[in-house]
Amino acid sequence: AERDDARDEALRTARDAARLLLAYDYRRLDEDFAAGATLTADPFKSEYERTTTRLVRDVATQYKAVVRAEVVQAGAVEVAEDRVVALLFVNQTTTSTRVQGAKVDLSRVRMVLQRINGSWRVTGVDAL
Hints:
Layout: H1 2-21, E1 24-25, H2 29-37, H3 44-62, E2 66-79, E3 83-96, E4 99-116, E5 119-127
Antiparallel strand pairs: 1-2, 2-3, 3-4, 4-5
């Protein structure tokens, strides 16, 4: 039962995290990046902060990018009481000055979540 609860709680966090971490709006990058960071812990937190600051911010601002992320499906591939590995299917819809209309990317993401001080946090993310 504890493993089932762990799986359910971690998957809920994974869905929320995917919607936050894989989306942003060039008009409110600070808020979006801060919201995403609240669901992360190291080693991923440092990586996320580095990537958003160095890469995403410039490109998003330059091309007026708005990215929305919709979690289509999520499942746990490994479950322990304090660590869950989730696989998520995410549709990312991007509008920007780079392309006409919206561009949709069907992404598969492997997310590692760990329970830290009673809360689930994302500690690893890999695009598959």
